[in-house]
Amino acid sequence: MDIIEDVLCFGGRQLRVKHTSESCHCDMVFSVFLPPQAEQGKVPVVWWLSGLTCNDQNFVTKAGAQRVAAELGVAIVAPDTSPRGDGVADDPDGAWDFGLGAGFYVNATQAPYDRHYRMYDYVQAELPALLAKRFPLDIERQSIMGHSMGGHGALTLALRHPDQYRSVSAFAPICVPSQVSWGQKAFGGYFGGDESLWLEHDAVALIEKSGFDKPILVDQGAADSFLQNQLKPELLEQACERAGVALTLNQREGYDHSYFFIASFIEEHFRYHGRFLSR
Amino acid sequence: MDIIEDVLCFGGRQLRVKHTSESCHCDMVFSVFLPPQAEQGKVPVVWWLSGLTCNDQNFVTKAGAQRVAAELGVAIVAPDTSPRGDGVADDPDGAWDFGLGAGFYVNATQAPYDRHYRMYDYVQAELPALLAKRFPLDIERQSIMGHSMGGHGALTLALRHPDQYRSVSAFAPICVPSQVSWGQKAFGGYFGGDESLWLEHDAVALIEKSGFDKPILVDQGAADSFLQNQLKPELLEQACERAGVALTLNQREGYDHSYFFIASFIEEHFRYHGRFLSR
Predict the structure, then answer these.
(1) How far is B13 from chain A (nearest CA, A)?
(2) Most buried residue, A36, A69, A112, B104, by most Cβ within 10 Å?
(3) Active site residue A257
């Protein structure tokens, strides 16, 4: 494990770490922010999962979350969004919505993606174990959040591992990947035609069958150009209502899909997670 | 004048604007943040001048300043750092510290730079006039700040136009460009050997002769790798002491030259300017 960047930020340390991933069979880079409180003892962890085309740096440089994380005493871990490197298969046409930068937080079953594209295991199991060993993190206190494809990742991981994540939130998540073109392309490529696998990674389908009993916080920009065709929060809302899940869906008039939207409301999300993580 | 981006951020509007500059004889792009208060009437302006290699976007996407600007009701204008475009001469070797991205906020007198490299006139005169005409800005209330090369720009503009800028601050400014290699390369290229021109754009030299009677706020990271060879805040400190200028020089232990440093202390700088701009 190599620390390739270590910069002071709001009194904490913003690190960038390179390591060889056993899940993804390649070198991976992730970012972790350690708040000042990590000098005194273990701190809880908020996971941030990024969207299509991002890597571990977008959130770290653009969201401004370190300020409130330093105040609350929580760490932030931002993984990459896909395996990378010379041996890693990309979309055959180099598209931005599949392959590199578009791992969709699943374990692929289809060649040539099945060897490296194992972001689900990487984020849910490998990274927490590595982090607990190497950093002053209290891995018993994790919360998870993300944006767009990463909002899908946060919701599906939380729904499938309710004991691992104390709370979950998302900005503009892909709520029903099996019913929209981004998700259909990804799941078709990573899983092939096996629809049962698709539904295991579809937040709306999981809510309908899971008995999830935690609240969910979602912020959605009303001027987001992907709202109608790719995100579909109304289907998440209907599923939560049917399943009795307490969803807070903040519709933000005039906001788009960008990090300017995320930055505007990130403090509220951190304070939300902070309440679950402090106990 | 074309608005090429218009995004909601902390209740205000983050704009990117393209226009043809009369000073620089080329198309230029600048960013302006209008706080929510600009919907009700004119708001004061804080100028942000960026450092070497930057354009109008670095500060806008990385510093997180819109939050406090929205609270205080001040606009932020972030110009580019040099003229750009096909006809604009660059460093002959394509170096990052001269030419494109390195205009040093001066009016060049030497060919081939003298036609386009007129960032001084552009920032001090052309842009304020344009902004006053097109946006709800109270151009009688301006403050100025910047980082590194832009810290040099902010200091020298404020020292030469004390009636224009109510307050001035800088992060890790190049305090004595005529005595360090970045500044010597830039001034040699833009001005040639005429040392009197060099000293008109050297903050320490200006302080010693100017009779400037406002306070100056500077934050400097103590772990900044450019501190000793390029920035030299100790010479600014000595000059201010000799001239009776009230300098607040915050040495920030462990901080480097990056936007993580700027983001950590930007709120303090905005609150500082806000006090001068509210009256």
Answers:
(1) 10
(2) B104
(3) yes
